[in-house]
Amino acid sequence: MSKVAAFGEVMMRLEVPRYATLSQSNSLNYSFSGTGVNVVSALARYGHEGYLLSELPDNPLGDAAIAYLRKLGIETDYISRGGRYIGSYFLEHGFGARASRVTYTDRWGSSFNTAQFDDAVFERAAADIDAVHFCGITLAMNDEVRAAMKRLGRAAKKAGKTVIFDCNYRPSLWGEGSYELAKPHYEEMLEIADIVFMNERDAIHILGMTASEKDRAGQLQQLIPQVAQRYKLQAVAGTHRKINGDNTHSLIGYLYKEGQFHFSRQLTFAVYDRVGAGDAYASGIIHGELQDASPLHTVEFAAAAAMLAHTVAGDTPLATEGDVLTAMQGELRDVSR
Amino acid sequence: MSKVAAFGEVMMRLEVPRYATLSQSNSLNYSFSGTGVNVVSALARYGHEGYLLSELPDNPLGDAAIAYLRKLGIETDYISRGGRYIGSYFLEHGFGARASRVTYTDRWGSSFNTAQFDDAVFERAAADIDAVHFCGITLAMNDEVRAAMKRLGRAAKKAGKTVIFDCNYRPSLWGEGSYELAKPHYEEMLEIADIVFMNERDAIHILGMTASEKDRAGQLQQLIPQVAQRYKLQAVAGTHRKINGDNTHSLIGYLYKEGQFHFSRQLTFAVYDRVGAGDAYASGIIHGELQDASPLHTVEFAAAAAMLAHTVAGDTPLATEGDVLTAMQGELRDVSR
Amino acid sequence: MSKVAAFGEVMMRLEVPRYATLSQSNSLNYSFSGTGVNVVSALARYGHEGYLLSELPDNPLGDAAIAYLRKLGIETDYISRGGRYIGSYFLEHGFGARASRVTYTDRWGSSFNTAQFDDAVFERAAADIDAVHFCGITLAMNDEVRAAMKRLGRAAKKAGKTVIFDCNYRPSLWGEGSYELAKPHYEEMLEIADIVFMNERDAIHILGMTASEKDRAGQLQQLIPQVAQRYKLQAVAGTHRKINGDNTHSLIGYLYKEGQFHFSRQLTFAVYDRVGAGDAYASGIIHGELQDASPLHTVEFAAAAAMLAHTVAGDTPLATEGDVLTAMQGELRDVSR
Amino acid sequence: MSKVAAFGEVMMRLEVPRYATLSQSNSLNYSFSGTGVNVVSALARYGHEGYLLSELPDNPLGDAAIAYLRKLGIETDYISRGGRYIGSYFLEHGFGARASRVTYTDRWGSSFNTAQFDDAVFERAAADIDAVHFCGITLAMNDEVRAAMKRLGRAAKKAGKTVIFDCNYRPSLWGEGSYELAKPHYEEMLEIADIVFMNERDAIHILGMTASEKDRAGQLQQLIPQVAQRYKLQAVAGTHRKINGDNTHSLIGYLYKEGQFHFSRQLTFAVYDRVGAGDAYASGIIHGELQDASPLHTVEFAAAAAMLAHTVAGDTPLATEGDVLTAMQGELRDVSR
Amino acid sequence: MSKVAAFGEVMMRLEVPRYATLSQSNSLNYSFSGTGVNVVSALARYGHEGYLLSELPDNPLGDAAIAYLRKLGIETDYISRGGRYIGSYFLEHGFGARASRVTYTDRWGSSFNTAQFDDAVFERAAADIDAVHFCGITLAMNDEVRAAMKRLGRAAKKAGKTVIFDCNYRPSLWGEGSYELAKPHYEEMLEIADIVFMNERDAIHILGMTASEKDRAGQLQQLIPQVAQRYKLQAVAGTHRKINGDNTHSLIGYLYKEGQFHFSRQLTFAVYDRVGAGDAYASGIIHGELQDASPLHTVEFAAAAAMLAHTVAGDTPLATEGDVLTAMQGELRDVSR
Amino acid sequence: MSKVAAFGEVMMRLEVPRYATLSQSNSLNYSFSGTGVNVVSALARYGHEGYLLSELPDNPLGDAAIAYLRKLGIETDYISRGGRYIGSYFLEHGFGARASRVTYTDRWGSSFNTAQFDDAVFERAAADIDAVHFCGITLAMNDEVRAAMKRLGRAAKKAGKTVIFDCNYRPSLWGEGSYELAKPHYEEMLEIADIVFMNERDAIHILGMTASEKDRAGQLQQLIPQVAQRYKLQAVAGTHRKINGDNTHSLIGYLYKEGQFHFSRQLTFAVYDRVGAGDAYASGIIHGELQDASPLHTVEFAAAAAMLAHTVAGDTPLATEGDVLTAMQGELRDVSR
User: Which residues does F241 contact at the CB level (< 8 Å), separation at least 6?
Assistant: First the structure.
């Protein structure tokens, strides 16, 4: 198995218990997550060693986050302590016709986003691990964080390690006219990356590519090969999701590799907690790539992992490799005794 | 925006946490509601000022009710304190094939139902507000309450204000052979009213009208115009509801106005808490009428408001005007960040 | 061991979780209790058979009460189903300088207080059981209940069974100038009773006796022998309680029997839930009398039972005979493994 | 109505609150159940007297189990106290594509499985009750328990009482190559039994019968009559279940009696808690047989009882006879006020 | 009664349920508080009208805060909506030898601390209300907030209204060497104020005064008259608190007015939630001053109000005037029925 | 800092929420603990690396235990997975005069107590760590576990590492006449050990020593030096505890070293959760010995650590070194902001 590190912020998730609003309730459940947290935690459950490169405040909230990450199976040796705050968000679960709502508190001043990352640590990490994961959310933060992200990426690249980049473009983080702002940073990251998560919308909006096809499936087939070629990517992957009226979602995953598209079956499933399911998909793809699995197996595995992530509370996938393999077979089981 | 008052009882809702029965559980969640509470709270969220004309006991339960009404955005200036009890009901949530159950405690001796309402307050309210809402549940209580209800209705009518009456006929409250008993009181209220909520069943059972049509839709089209004409009503509105086998309901709203029927699309949606959804529909119609919106917009808005009310815990609608307008567009959204 | 029945109302206790108020909280814990419930449940834990003579509504609340009584170890064969409501009360726990508050809902219209009790059942019970327990709270309800109480008491007396009466005078139930109203009814019950729970205040206020002594202890010693003699009582018992500033209470129990007073040591103890502790004391005395224990052992047992009842949540004592005997020894134990 | 006893273990169910895993959560809900518990509790709700023949430890867990069984309406007179442990299992509720998981603790050393059952008690029970229920889970425990089970069964048979046997074969309890081990014991129980719950898979795997038909329905029709004839059974019953992708199950019940098959309609319904639903089906069949109802009514009643059991939390059915009869009519009801 | 406004931030309190730490728990209770919130809410319970001058974000957290403030009885007309965040803090309750811990999130960027307050609103408020309350915590925030605070104070002063200032110096907010920084701002506020809350430590540390007395009581008597004279204050008040080993605190209140000190009795009491008790004391003093009560009554009332505030969950006092008057009498009551 | 491993069982603690009994409640909180868990977790908070040598089942309960241990800061590399069960105990919290109760489930068949420990792992651990901790509870289990314990102890001794042994004699585990049974095993462990936790009662009862002194303090001073000399112990330590009537305990710690006794001050403190406090004391002593602190500092540190452990929920100490040092100063602090 491999050692995989993620560079990214740990956030506190403050969830109103099902299905009340913040005005109705007076209690919250909390946990700690983040794209990087979710990905390396999932990989730890598949048998890899998962590390996080991050910074947390040296206060009771930071302590609680560290304890939680350890509980998730993540190694915390590369997490420094400093700064003053932990970014957080409030989640109100929707139901049926009522959408879930996320309200962020100030993450700009968080420990991670104000950290002075130590290049010596980056060098050590680059030497020690097999793959590093980055995320477009981190890219949206500020110049210092962006710079650190690229430094670490280049160090890993130079050391011959696999660099993973999830585009994960969030319009609300970049602000108005943001695509212009984001484009050069995304291009830099794509230059560094080996495995990339994105779809045709990222290609069109962020990279400014144009498609002659009208529907999403066609655009995907048209644009992703161009991106893969331009940036010499080992693999590009992503999903198309559809939200149905009966509390179910439908999802189809793709993996483009060595000039070929591989698609999962379309899965339709009941949704309990949607947040973090994209990270489960990503971890399934990364696991397949790290294991050199066949692309078709990998994309089916990733789609099943994403499906299962919709059935657990919290942002972070909990399924083991065995759980995902069982779910891939598609037959629903009675109580497992 | 307008000032709208409702005359009605505030009840304590004591809910067994999902989906246990009273024999199974040992804890309850409580809130305070009532048709009037639900309607003016919803209108307050649409930007109006919502008042309640009611009486609550001067004890910790009355204090808790006042605090809760204020939290809902309701103005409590017209609520007097006195009497001894607050009416209450226990709600056991059903699931699928098992229906929800409501068990009432003694509401007949409640503060509201034993109150001596002050005509001077009624006159002041009639002068101050733009519309008053009444409900058939209140009409079922006792002679004193009925008399007060009519006095307030007439005072509002005389002051040129809009009188709203929701038929809301509850067989269990009127007892055996109750239609005979109820009919004259309903007729009196219809004489006073401008906006009325009812459907063909009320026309047939309470008013004793006969229909040649066999199905509900036909009877509605046949009888409602007669009612509207007989009582010179500005608007008559209501819904037809269907309970489906998969924890969803289907609902279609109607609004009859100026000689014409307007129907909403049929909406089918997952149900989280069914209680109070009729009041959400009523508040949507009232909002449209107070705003002079087009009848079609109003009936679609009201149906969407009713749909959203099925997705929140508690009797009282929580949606803002923006929430309802979004839901009217009919597209299901992913997590709103 | 004996068969003991209690005649009395079953009430629903709705408790705000510690130590919030009704305005602050949104949830309640519920249980079912009553003086009779508490006494026969405690006796059942001491090895007797405990029955309740009562009526409960034939609805989900009545079902839940029956289930709860069975869980407490009470036999429910003599409980009829009918009427419409169950009396209930809300309890807000105080803390330190803030006293607990009890708010009653309408118990006057409860199933028990509107029941038509069947004399045939009373005769059967009188023949079947060894002792019947009555309470002054029941005496305060209405003429029908009072009459039923006396009929059952006389039937038991006539059958040679032990009649127990707990004065339990509640000023708020009798209303203004209530002592005059209550006196004849209390006198009738004292004529019937064998074992009576009261103290000097009951003698002075209800029975209109006068004491030359100034302090409570002296008045007790002066008046109780007169009461015992006048009504030919087998035993009279009660407690003196002191509320201390540090969340502890001090309590001393007395038992007057065959012309002699017997006092327990003064016990001082931390209080978790004060409600129902008097009933624990009564059940300790009844147990001793039914077992023909020595008066000193009985009064110490009863005081220890009362002390333990302050340490458990809910109105109803939970201690077994062994628990009380251990507590009588007065030594505090570490965790019992 | 009848007196029905069940011989079987009481287990503690420790359930992670919906829908977390043991690693995620830090709290559990607990209750007490078991096939026998579920069956006689359901029968008690239909108006019969339900007894349990079992043993529980004389410690706080045993006390809690006794209290819980009494709350369920079960008579506990035939439960002895002794041994050291109560068997227990942990339940993690699945959601959609994620199956529920049950993890057992050591039940082999439980009070029930190490009890010395007293033949005098068996004789008394056999004389006193009308029917006794046994279960294949008990048969899997150990030689002493198996022997006691057969002794009690023969005593009941000899006393002319109805013997009920639910095959309930659990592969994990018998271990590898278990069918060989189980066969003679099942055959002995079938010799004793009058009413048997099983389906074609039991006939094939346990009894070693062969079927020429390929599908389950055909095999059922082929094999069950042979079993009924061979063991001279009064009635054989069971279900076929299908797990659907949308959190619903489909179920069809059968009852073979006097040479004829009777089938319920296929019911499809939303599932809240699947555990124990088979016991609800069994209790419906037993109720019909004890009441001499028509086979078609009985099988429809049993299927509706099973459906309702999927809608309540916990293993133990809660529906009354009225609830089941209403559900048999198949129309979904709005809130019952 | 009077109209009293407070100028200050509304904070979200996120409390770990008793008595766990953030690392141990996974749930929080939340409420909304702040010095101004606490003071005007308490005054509203004494019969005054309480207003808040503040700003809250226009998001679900702001909505929840508004609803909560309304529930507390506070008028929210002067609260503007804007900015991005609500300040918040996490509270871990200590027990006995383990102190409670408060961890702040970033309040510097909160809506209140980044608001552009409108002078027209200040003028309107100054004209409308009778008294305005300010707090030293607000003074510690930033130059804009400080400037707004002083503008509103001067507007109120000019309009002849009572200006109240609570020194409430928090070292952690001002940072290193902070007294120098704070002094001129405190002096400006003292120039404006009529009623001031402080004690000898504020005089020494913030104002740089020196005392020849060695003990706190002597220093208080020496310095407070100088402060009152220098700034021409109507009243100066405060408390001395002692933390005892047995989960109780001891508190003595003082009020200096017209050249004389008035002290409350020393109160010793069990503590349930210490946060916000100082604000209860302040509101008692303000109530007395607004009512022109005798200074001795006022200081005893304020101390009793502070004592009661230690007995309720949450920062915000809940006692009514009647509750405080009862507590002033000092006798502990049994359950109030 | 050092590497410390503990050899011992991980148990599941199932706690009834405060202060209900198992019969009253329907929910439990769970965590994972054990003497070894508590000690190495506490040491991890003081800055050491804490390892556990144990076995856990390869099922969801084992997974949950591993996750929990990681959350506590414990390294789980030396924990093997196998066997079938995890030992568990139920805790009902007492209050005041009512003692806490612990009910064990079957731990004899647990994974740890049936494990085949691998000598190669023991050798590796002995080489890798600085100190190993053993406990008398493990010694009471069975011959295989005892043998493994001694093998590991000797391996560590041979490797020159510090061997720690906590006598922790539990009468209920050894059974009747158990001292005879236990003595040789304790003697063997004392031969191996360097640091021992015991007091005069262990010397008298287990080792069969006799004391001429009558009181515990005198016996301690008489016997411990003999034990230390006989077994050549580096240090012997323990506590004397007194349970007071007001929910407080008093505790005095001792450390005997190099021929001298060192005693802590007597600490008296409010108790929230008593379980595990002895392990906190032990970890304080071990920390001092590993750090070569002065004996007086060590014993005061250990006593303060024990005191703090009584103030947190759960068996496992949570205090950091800083927390303990603060508590050693003995002054009670207000809210720490």
Answer: C334, F249, F250, F251
- Do E117 and E150 form a contact (C-beta atoms < 8 A)? no
Q: State which fold the B234-329 domain adopts.
A: UDP-N-acetylmuramoyl-L-alanine:D-glutamate ligase (3.40.1190)
Task: Flag if C308 and F98 touch (Cβ within 8 Å).
Answer: yes
Stretch A313-325: mean pLDDT, rounded?
96
Secondary structure of residue A92 in the 3-state scheme: strand
pLDDT confidence tier of residue E39, bands split at 50, 70 and 90 = very high
Name the residue among D193, D292, D291 with its Cα closest to residue D234: D193
Q: Which one of D63, D71, D77, D318 would you mutate to disrupt binding with C, by most C Cβ within 10 Å of its Cβ?
A: D71
CB-count exposure of residue D254 (10 Å: 0-12, 13-18, 19+): buried
pTM for this prediction:
0.96
C-alpha E325, offset from chain centre? 21
Residue predicted with more confidence, C107 or A163: A163
pLDDT tens digits along C12-67 = 999 999 899 999 999 999 999 999 999 999 999 999 999 999 999 999 999 999 99
The DSSP annotation for D77-123 comes to TTEEE-SS---EEEEE--BTTBPPEEEE---TTSTGGG----HHHHH
pLDDT bin (cut points 50, 70, 90) of residue F247 is: confident
E66 pLDDT tier (thresholds 50, 70, 90): very high
Is residue F164 within 8 Å of residue F133, measured between CB atoms? yes
Integer Cα distance of D98 and A290 in angstroms: 26
Give the closest of F22, F63, F86 to D60, CB-based: F22
Nearest to F42 by CA among F34, F52, F50, F53: F50
Tokens of E234: 């109507």
Find the mean pLDDT for residues F168-194. Answer: 92
Give the separation between CA A113 and CA B139, rounded to whole angstroms: 62
List, as one string, the DSSP characters of A183-252: HHHHHHHHHH-SEEE--HHHHHHTS----S--SHHHHHHHHHHHHHHHTT-SEEEEEEEEE-TTSEEEEE
* Distance (Å) from the alpha carbon of D170 to chain A's nearest alpha carbon: 9
Residues 6+ apart with CB under 8 A from F130: F2, F3, F4, F161, F162, F290
Q: In chain D, list all ranges with CATH 3.40.1190.20.
A: 3-234
- What tens digit of pLDDT does each residue of C158-167 get? 999 999 999 9
Residues of F with CB under 8 A from a CB of E: 71, 246, 248, 268-272, 307-308, 310-314, 318-319, 323, 327, 332-337
DSSP E strand boundaries for chain C:
3-7, 11-16, 27-33, 49-56, 79-81, 88-92, 101-104, 131-135, 162-166, 195-197, 235-243, 248-257, 260-263, 267-270
β B267-270/D79-81 pair status: unpaired
Token readout for B245 is 């086998």
Closest approach of F249 to chain C, Cα-based (Å): 10
Cis peptide leading into E78, omega within 30 of 0? no
Going across the sheet that includes F88-92, the strands are: D101-104, D88-92, D11-16, D27-33, F27-33, F11-16, F88-92, F101-104
What is the 3-class SS of B273-314, one letter each residue? CCCCHHHHHHHHHHHHHHHCCCHHHHHHHHHHHHHHHCCCCC
List all residues 6 or more positions away from B61 whose beta carbon is below 8 Å from its beta carbon: B12, B86, C22, C90, C103
Q: Which chain D residues contact residue A71 at CB under 8 A? A: 23
CATH architecture of D3-234: 3-Layer(aba) Sandwich (3.40)
For residue C163, the number of C-alpha atoms closer than 13 Å in the C-beta half-sphere is: 26
Phi, psi of A3 (to 5 degrees): -105, 120
Cβ partners under 8 Å of residue C121, min gap 6: C53, C78, C80
